C-alpha cells in the first residue's frame, strides 16, 4: 500500500477552534496521533494513558484524550494520542471508521463507505 498525506482538522473539546494538519493516512495505526503541542494549543487534556505496540515490536505508553476531529467536512469526537514533538500526525483506523471513510491508496484519497451491520 502506498502512503499518502491528507488534511485533517483537530478541534478543541468545545469545538470553538480547529487547527489543520497534514496527516499520514495509516490504516495500520489504531488511533489518530497528533503532536502534543497542537493538542495543548487547543486545550485538549489527556484523560488516560494507554500502551501501544510499535512496528518494531516495542511497547510504549502515551497520553490519550477525546476531542473533535474533522475529516472531509465530517466532525466527530474521537480518541487522539499525544505524539512526541517532531512526529508526523497519523490518521488512524478508528477515526477513518468513525467518519465512515476508507483509504484509496491508488488515487491517494479517502472514500465514503457504509457502516456494516450484522443482522440477528
CATH fourth-tier homologous superfamily = Acid Proteases
Task: Please give the share of residues in helix.
Answer: 10-25%
Regarding quaternary structure, how should these chains be classified?
Answer: single chain
Low-pLDDT sequence parts: none
CATH architecture: Beta Barrel
Structural class: mainly beta
* CATH class descriptor name: Mainly Beta
Give the CA-CA distance, first to last residue: 35 Å
Q: What's the total helix number?
A: 2
Q: Can you give the mean pLDDT?
A: 94
Please provide the ordered H/E string of secondary-structure elements: EEEHEEEEHEE
Strand content: over 45%
CATH topology assignment: Cathepsin D, subunit A, domain 1
Overall 3D form: globular
Number of domains: 1
What profile does the largest beta sheet have? Answer: 7 strands, mixed
- Cα radius of gyration in angstroms: 14 Å
Secondary structure: number of strands: 9
Amino acid at each position: 500500500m502506498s502512503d499518502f498525506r491528507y488534511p485533517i482538522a483537530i478541534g478543541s473539546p468545545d469545538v470553538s477552534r480547529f487547527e489543520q494538519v497534514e496527516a499520514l493516512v495509516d490504516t495500520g495505526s489504531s488511533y489518530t496521533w497528533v503532536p502534543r503541542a497542537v493538542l495543548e494549543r487547543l486545550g485538549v487534556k489527556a484523560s488516560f494513558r494507554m500502551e501501544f505496540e510499535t512496528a518494531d515490536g516495542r511497547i510504549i505508553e502515551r497520553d490519550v484524550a477525546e476531542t473533535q476531529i474533522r475529516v472531509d467536512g465530517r466532525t466527530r469526537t474521537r480518541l487522539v494520542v499525544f505524539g512526541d514533538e517532531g512526529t508526523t500526525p497519523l490518521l488512524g483506523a478508528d477515526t477513518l471508521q468513525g467518519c465512515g471513510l476508507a483509504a484509496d491508496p491508488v488515487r491517494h484519497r479517502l472514500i465514503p463507505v457504509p457502516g456494516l451491520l450484522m443482522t440477528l
